[in-house]
Amino acid sequence: MYPLSALAGRGGLLVNAIVFRGWCLKDFIQGLPKAELHIHLEGSMQPELMFRLAERNSIALRFSSVEALEDAYHFNNLQEFLDLYYEGMQVLITEEDFFDLTWDYLQRAHADRVLHTEMFFDPQAHLERGVAFETVINGIFSAMEAARCELGISSLLILSFLRHLSGAEALSLLKQVDEHLPLFAAVGLDSSEKGNPPEKFEAAFEYARSKGLKAVAHAGEEGPPEYVWGALNALKVDRIDHGNRSLEDPSLIKVLIEQQIPLTICPLSNLRLAVVDDMSDHPLRRMLELGLKVTINSDDPAYFGGYLNDNYRAVEQALSLSVEQLGLIARNSFESAFVKNDVKQEWLSALDSYMCSYQ
Ligand code: ADE
Ligand code: ZN
User: Fold this and answer.
1) Tell me, what's the pLDDT at 358?
2) For 220, left (φ over 0), alpha (ψ -120 to 50), or beta?
3) Which residues pair with 240 in a beta bridge?
4) Ligand 1 pocket mutation, candidates 41, 73, 221, 273, criterion most atoms within 8 A of CB
5) Reading across the β-sheet that carries 293-296, which strands appear in turn?
6) 221: Cβ below 6 Å to ligand 1?
7) Across the chain, what does the average pLDDT equal?
8) Catalytic one among 36, 42, 221, 222?
9) What is the mean pLDDT of residues 255-278?
10) E strand residue ranges, the chain
11) What was the pLDDT predicted at 23?
12) Measured in angstroms, how far is the CA atom of residue 242 from the centroid of ligand 2?
């Protein structure tokens, strides 16, 4: 960072204003109360933790060091990332592993002033490796409870189906874990989008909704607007995860605006998975201006170079978002959460007070 005195003189005032804006907004984002609604726990495993768990479980990684692993974090598309993501999660074996993973993420979220988070996990990816469902959820829920008590952070869990598997497998998973379903806030749909339309999962989602669960689905990340329509009409989702490609279909935009369907946008993920070429091309600002209900999220923070505040800062800098726009995004995140209205109101009041202090 340059000292301000070095920037005095011709153009200095303008540069000072830009530097000052950067400083202020960094602090503003840091203190902004917010919710995170799109984060994959398995994608929050830092390379250091992966190495620690590999050692604890006597698993040999094919990377010789943390640096060698990080060097592999260059992706041209979603599938290249997913291949490494599934490989990485093989170090998760015991309840303690799932506890450590979840606890690490919740501490980082708390440090970013996240008051509430709704986290995905991929049970099928663990069951197929012989890890019991109870092992996974016991570890995750223990960490959620510890974080609620020790940090005051609220969290919910979303059971996500792998869309490269069949609809029948998703439905059979739900029936297999029927007794545990009241523990989850929602079901989700993730993994390889192209070639796996939402309609494949209509029966599984119908079953989950009949059990009182909410529904979300990744759609329009790489897949076409038709998949967003499919998520809305066949799966009857309450939120769309990503949804970037909705912008290609004016009639879909109209429905998303009219029904105020939340979109969980993940800026750093979009950059790292080549959904956008450059952050300055990110559609988030346009989405806001159109009146879409957008939120900002980290997706797989350990793989994409940043947690929630890094995502807020990246779009703020690239798109010059205002304090009001950032406040609206935080408001959308609370309004779109799967919690009771009175709880939402408390968070929204905290947000209102914070925004007043920045007038
Ligand atoms: N699983 C983890 N991250 C994902 C993403 N961004 N898209 C689809 N599936 C995922
Ligand atoms: Zn995701």
Assistant:
1) 86
2) left
3) 217, 263
4) 221
5) 34-40, 114-121, 154-162, 186-190, 214-219, 239-242, 262-265, 293-296
6) yes
7) 95
8) 221
9) 98
10) 34-40, 114-121, 154-162, 186-190, 214-219, 239-242, 262-265, 293-296
11) 67
12) 7
Tell how far the Cα of 280 is from the centroid of ligand 1, in angstroms. 22
Exposed e or buried b per residue across 283-310, where buried means at least 16 C-beta atoms within 10 angstroms of its C-beta: bbbebbeeebbbbbbbbbbbbbbbbbbb
- Output the residue whose Cα is nearest ligand 1's atom 9: 191
DSSP assignment of 209-256 equals: HHTT-EEEEEESSSS-HHHHHHHHHTS--SEEEE-GGGGG-HHHHHHH
CB 188 within 8 A of CB 198: no
Q: Distance between CA atoms of 129 and 331, rounded to whole angstroms?
A: 40
From the CA of 273, give the closest atom in ligand 1: 6
The domain ranges of the chain are 35-336+343-356
CA–centroid distance, residue 71 to ligand 2 (Å): 22
Residue 122 in contact with ligand 1 by CB distance below 6 A: no
Q: Would the CB of 43 count as within 6 Å of ligand 1?
A: yes
pLDDT of residue 17: 63
Residues with Cβ within 8 Å of residue 173, at least 6 apart in sequence = 123, 124, 127, 161, 204
Structure tokens at 190: 């993730």
- C-alpha 238 – ligand 2 centre gap (Å): 16
Q: Supply the DSSP symbol for 64.
A: S
- DSSP three-state, residue 266: coil
Mark whether 221 is an active-site residue: yes
CATH no., domain 35-336+343-356: 3.20.20.140
pTM above 0.85, yes or no: yes
